[in-house]
Amino acid sequence: MFKIVTKRQLNEAVTLMEVEAPYIAAKAKAGQFIIFRIDQFGERVPLTIADHDADKGTVTIIFQAVGSSTKALAQLNEGDYILDFVGPLGNATEIEGYKNVCVVGGGVGCAIAYPSAKALHEAGAHVDMIAGFRNKDIVILEDEMRAVSDNLYVTTDDGSYGEKGFVTNKLQSLIDAGNNYDLVIAIGPIPMMKFLSEVTRPYGIKTLVSLNPIMIDGTGMCGGCRVTVGGKIRFACVDGPDFDGHEVDFDELMRRNTYYKTQERERADHECRILKMGEQAETSEQKEGK
User: Fold this and answer.
1) What is the per-residue pLDDT across 56-102, written as a single tens digit (0 to 9) for each?
2) Which of 238, 233, 241 is nearest to 220 (CA)?
């Protein structure tokens, strides 16, 4: 059992939680993720490690309440417990040897971009950060991102905060202004990462993207998180989640991520038969005093 020690609402739909997990906190690095299971009937859900504190023994996760599991997690409070919290999983983001970096986050992807920017900043790199949102109401982590970057550029689609426009336009303008980046990290919706990779391609700027395909076990055994990179099959959970954005087949990834949209829409109105059987069995055992 893993205790929730801090809970903070970042906006209407996004929650930050600090979870007591000392063994994970001792080994976690930027770019890695955990898989949680809220209770014995819950699904396994991967979340990127947004931050960690080895001295306190805590791991920070930031998530948007969009499905049944994340909505249930958002209902928990400080002092409550999560049944399973496994990690760190995946490979850490490359940070060594880079001097001039631009880290780009889109929406909730800023929660994943933030630890990479922090690690690069601490390693001595010059870090520009672009954070894009639809509007002012959903801006998150502005103070935290500003603290780990030399320049923070906030953009909104509607111009309600920061600069009006898309992160792709801002990155292009920074390149045009003479910023010779030796690395760009792009994290956010798949189309955003695809188009940012196309912005950097003509300049030969190394571009890393963090992929979030369908994932189940997190160990490479189920094959659910397979992606095509450079014409070869890779597994995001063990080979990633960071990959060369110039080699990712984004169109295939988008198609795969929509495979279960119908079932996801139906899930809100569908009572899982297996879940119901498990709950009935648990109730029966409690009545029998087991």
Assistant:
1) 999 999 999 888 889 999 999 999 999 999 989 999 998 889 999 99
2) 238
Look up tokens 């954070």; give the residue.
Answer: 131
Closest CA to 126 of 149, 146, 145, 103: 149
CATH architecture of 2-89: Beta Barrel (2.40)
What's the pTM value of the predicted model, to 2 decimals? 0.84
Sketch the domain layout of the chain as residue ranges: 2-89, 100-257
**Which residue bears the tokens 């990479």?**
116
**Spatial separation of the C-alpha atoms in residues 183 and 164, rounded to whole Å:** 24
Q: Count the Cβ atoms, other than its own, within 10 Å of residue 28.
A: 24
Which residues 6+ apart lie within 8 Å of 117 measured at CB?
101, 103, 127, 129, 145, 148, 149, 185
